[in-house]
Design a protein that fits this description.
alpha+beta; globular; 23% helix; single chain; 2 helices; 112 residues; five-stranded mixed beta sheet
Length: 112
């Protein structure tokens, strides 16, 4: 029995999961007063280290990253932002909530 010869060409599939996906539409920026953020302190993330988490952010990634950058500067620490969630290293619940209030964001402190 002869082995099939590899031609090096492209292989096309009609399987629904193999079709190119459409790029997600960029979300419109939601004003701070219409956001419904949650703020909490979590110890389960980052290998047992304490982190202040802001989640439920609605809007484009650029707006999320800008808010995260501002909160990190206010707290004087590092952190990250992705998928509608901001992580601030350390327990900075009071500073973060004070700053969100000053910026006009609607939020609730969750699980504390």
């Amino acid at each position: 029995m002869a082995k099939p010869k590899h031609t090096g060409g492209l292989v096309y599939s009609t399987h629904p999961g193999s079709q190119p996906q459409a790029k997600p539409k960029p979300q419109a920026e939601v004003p701070p007063a219409q956001q419904d953020l949650r703020v909490t302190v979590d110890k389960k993330l980052k290998g047992g280290k304490v982190a202040t988490v802001v989640y439920n952010f609605v809007g484009p990634e650029s707006a999320l990253e800008a808010l995260a950058r501002h909160l990190k500067q206010v707290c004087g620490v590092g952190g990250s932002a992705k998928n509608g969630e901001i992580l601030i290293q350390g327990n900075h619940l009071q500073r973060v909530t004070d700053e969100l209030k000053r910026l006009g964001y609607r939020f609730k402190v969750a699980g504390v």
